[in-house]
Amino acid sequence: MKDKAVIEAIARRDEQAVSAVIDKYSRLLWPIASAVLEKVGCAQDVEECVADTFIYLWEHPEKFDPEKGSLKSWLCIVVRSRAIDRFREITRRGVLPLEEAVLAQTLGLQEEAMRKETRRELLETVNSLDEPGREILVRRYYYDQKPRQIALALGMTVKQVDNSLYRSKRLLREKLSQAWGGAE
Q: Could you give the CA distance from residue 53 to residue 56 in angstroms, rounded to a whole number?
């Protein structure tokens, strides 16, 4: 669905449209708010900024102007503004209460440990793939090369590259699903 159609649906109070926007952009908005609030906020502050962004979209869909840019860009700007406002609010209050500071630090360490473990498992799984699937996957998703570029570099057809990507992603999904206890 195009941005304009999505906004029109939200203006008509179509809950499915806003749900689709939330599903599509939540993962994009989270790191933006997190980067702004990194030193002073906690995960709850980030979550509130992202939620406030979608509430703002729901309550004021007319504020989005498709002539000025994409919905994706607009949401990024809104979440950044919300995070900056939250940052100012937190810093204006002064020092965080001790319990919040300790909790935020503990959660940050746990999140970092989980990120490292996930990264390690992902790298192990990617390295366990056979060639040329591994190289194609790395070129596509790490170096952001287009299938056409990969095909030229490896002397393959674009169709072969696409098929290899499909198989490698399927294998990766299966192996990670097993490693993470069956959750997909």
A: 5
Q: Which domains does the chain have, with CATH numbers?
A: 3-93 (1.10.1740.10), 117-179 (1.10.10.10)
pLDDT in tens, the chain (184 residues): 688 888 888 889 989 999 999 999 989 899 988 888 877 777 888 899 999 999 999 999 999 888 888 899 899 999 999 988 888 887 777 655 555 555 566 666 677 777 777 778 878 888 888 889 889 988 888 788 899 999 999 999 999 999 999 999 998 888 877 766 654 4
The DSSP secondary structure of 29-75, one letter per residue, reads HHHHHHHHHTTT--HHHHHHHHHHHHHHHHH-GGG--TTT--HHHHH
Query: How many C-beta atoms lie closer than 10 Å to residue 150's C-beta?
Result: 24
Record the tokens describing residue 96, joined without a space.
């965080």
Using alpha carbons, select from 48, 118, 113 the residue that is nearest to residue 83: 48
CA distances from 112 to 28, 117, 119, 120, 121 (A): 19, 9, 10, 12, 14
What predicted TM-score, i.e. pTM, was given to this entire model? 0.51
Count of C-beta atoms within a 10 Å radius of residue 109: 10
Give burial (CB, 10 Å; 0-12/13-18/19+) of 117: exposed
Nearest by Cα to 123 from 107, 111, 141, 109? 141
